[in-house]
Request: fold
Amino acid sequence: MAKVFLRAGKERSALRRHPWLFEDAVGRLEGRARPGDTVEVLAHGGKPLGRAAWSPEARIRARVWSFDPAETIDDAFFKRRVALAVARRQAMPELAEQEGLRLIHAESDGLPGVIADRYGETVVVQLNSAGAEKWRGAIVTALVRATGCARVYERSDSESRAQEGLAPITGWVHGEPPDGPVVVGENGLRLAVDFAGGHKTGFYLDQRDNRRLLRELAAGQRVLNCFCYTGGFSLQALAGGAEHVLSIDSSGPALEQARANLILNPALPAERAEWLQADVFEALREFRAAGRAFGLIVLDPPKFAPSAAHAEQAARAYLDINLLAYRLLVPGGLLMTYSCSGGMGTERFQKIVANAALDAGRDARILRRLQAAADHPIGLAYPEGEYLKGLLVLAD
Ligand code: SAH
Reply:
């Protein structure tokens, strides 16, 4: 096994058990290592710190599998870690009963670069790092064993994978394709998941709890759901008794899926739903000009700041849509606003939402802080795991 020595003064992060070793922290490599190979990580002075996956092309030069320098990284290691991640979810009743569930949340479940989402009998796996790629077989086998699921689809076509110098890979890696569309239940509704063509692994499981909260707030409201994707929030608002739900997305296929999801739930009042294919920034300006108003607005935009480097540009975009939303909100209206950008911190986001209120001339207060559901844990040693943050704001 090759040895990687950290640079003097650059060991702090690893000593705090953060799993990423950046290129500027990595000093000498003793021996040879190919992408994904396991390397021994040592402090500058030679003290063993753990074992990591080597990724020579990425800025994150290595991702630590284990901070136990004696732990062997082999098939059994993945069997243990995958089983542990699955067992953690089974131990929580609110998660154990979900048909749509994140089983492995990468770094925060001790498996850097590995995402696995379960949709009924189908597991969708995403391998985002050289190390995860190397252990594909062991990870898939362990997932099948731990879940008993019939099939596993690989959806390894993310941006972060490209940064590791890995080509995209998609397709079935275990079992036979299902006969028809994969449909999962969520908070009493049914939603089809396009794991092959949709975003991420097909669905935004992270918003499950927040969609339930919206349902509780929606009774009698005129709701505006911006960036609706396949209609998760929209359908919950209808189920909660909203008077009208207007949903906007720029993606035609997402809206098509949203309409299909509404049909999958015949108990919902379809006549109260309106879908609009548009750019949210433009549509909100037009609504303002037309004097439209809403009692409850959801803003769940895509990642404006994939990394800290995009933070400035992203901040302007967040300020813009939040300002536009306040201007469409009736007095006493609710704004449910999110950022899923890793490069946008919680405090910064709150400041932007506050500045938008100020610019709109609205007095407002936070009723709740919102985050991803519990199947998307945040490793305490890995604050980057807190990518999704939201606020429920009541504006006078
Ligand atoms: N709230 C959704 C997830 C939103 S993902 C859920 O709970 O499932 C972000 C969505 O924003 C995507 O569907 C994408 O198509 C859409 N989008 C991105 N930029 C947009 C823009 N400028 N205007 C409208 N929609 C946009």
In short: DSSP finds twelve helices and 20 strands in the chain. The mean pLDDT is 97.
